Structures are given as structure tokens and as C-alpha cells.
């Protein structure tokens, strides 16, 4: 049986961010089921400009859209900045609005931040608007993320680990449909 191809988009541009660590944990947890490719070039996408979103969009945007299109599912893991999504993540999504790359695409949404509540709500609204396919069980808010890791930077909070296991199971059901 072919492993499902998952594209993970990290909302943080920080090297070795907590969000990246969460996705790396999920990749290890589900390595027998999925190949999770982490998109690490979100900061390289140009600022969204509707005038450039025509028949010849920037090459980096075309490549990003192709990665989404080819994936069996998409995973977004993001922090909250000033009660909202990071600008780089919103910018990346804006480059996809004029296309159907997200339409009916199975998606998992994780907001991992100090609080994250407002960004999590905003992310769900935006992804609903671009017609992705997600359920309550394929969304996860992890508040107080920095405290969930031990001194070695390893996810150690048992409640968070249990929630990630349940999330990955629900996401698996979603992409299998």
C-alpha cells in the first residue's frame, strides 16, 4: 500500500521553532503511514500582489501550489502572532486563493503557541473559505507550547502527546476517505 503524501506548512519562520518540532514529532509518529514533506521556504514566497497573480505568477508560487496540489493531504502548524496568523502564512495562503489547490483538500490544522485561541479560530475560518476539508478532530490548539518540551527540546507533555495521537488518527481517517 502506498504511503500517503502529506505536505506540512509551518507558519513560523523561526529556525527550530516549536511548530517545526511538533510536525517532526508527528512525522516520526506516523512514519509507517505517511511521508510528511515539510515546506521550509515560506519566507521565500514574495509578498502577495494580485497584479502578479496572473498567467505567469512567480516561480516560487507555482512550485508551492504544485506541492499542495500533489499532496494527499496538507498539515498546517502555526504559532499566533499578535492574536493572529503570522504574516508569512497568511501570505502563502493568499497566493492560493485564486486557484482551486486547496479545494476539498484534506487538511489538519494545529495552532501551537503561548495562547493561540484567536489564530486558531482565524485559521479555521480562512481554510473553510478556501474550501479545505477538515473536522473538529483534525484541528488542534496547543496552548503554552514552549512548556510542553523538556530541556533537550523533546516533546514530553503526556497530555499533548495523547492529543497528537488522537489528532493523527482522525487525520488518517480524513485522508483515507
UniProtKB/TrEMBL annotation:
<dbReference type="InterPro" id="IPR050712">
    <property type="entry name" value="NAD(P)H-dep_reductase"/>
</dbReference>
<protein>
    <submittedName>
        <fullName>NAD(P)H-dependent oxidoreductase</fullName>
    </submittedName>
</protein>
<feature type="domain" description="NADPH-dependent FMN reductase-like">
    <location>
        <begin position="6"/>
        <end position="139"/>
    </location>
</feature>
<dbReference type="InterPro" id="IPR005025">
    <property type="entry name" value="FMN_Rdtase-like_dom"/>
</dbReference>
<dbReference type="Pfam" id="PF03358">
    <property type="entry name" value="FMN_red"/>
</dbReference>
Amino acid at each position: 500500500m502506498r504511503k500517503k503524501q502529506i505536505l506540512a506548512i509551518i507558519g513560523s519562520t523561526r529556525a527550530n521553532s516549536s511548530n517545526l518540532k511538533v510536525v517532526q514529532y508527528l512525522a516520526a509518529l506516523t512514519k509507517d503511514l505517511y511521508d510528511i514533506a515539510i515546506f521550509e521556504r515560506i519566507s521565500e514566497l514574495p509578498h502577495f500582489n494580485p497584479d502578479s497573480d496572473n498567467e505567469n505568477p512567480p516561480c516560487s508560487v507555482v512550485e508551492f501550489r504544485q506541492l499542495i496540489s500533489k499532496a494527499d493531504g496538507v498539515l498546517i502548524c502555526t504559532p499566533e502572532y499578535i492574536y493572529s496568523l503570522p504574516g508569512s502564512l497568511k501570505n502563502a495562503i493568499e497566493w492560493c486563493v485564486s486557484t482551486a489547490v486547496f479545494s476539498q483538500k484534506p487538511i489538519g490544522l494545529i495552532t501551537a503557541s503561548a495562547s493561540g485561541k484567536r489564530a486558531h479560530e482565524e485559521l479555521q475560518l480562512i481554510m473553510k473559505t478556501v474550501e479545505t476539508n477538515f473536522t473538529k478532530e483534525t484541528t488542534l490548539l496547543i496552548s503554552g507550547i514552549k512548556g510542553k518540551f523538556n530541556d533537550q527540546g523533546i516533546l514530553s507533555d503526556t497530555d499533548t502527546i495523547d492529543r497528537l495521537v488522537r489528532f493523527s488518527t482522525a487525520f488518517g481517517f480524513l485522508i483515507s476517505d
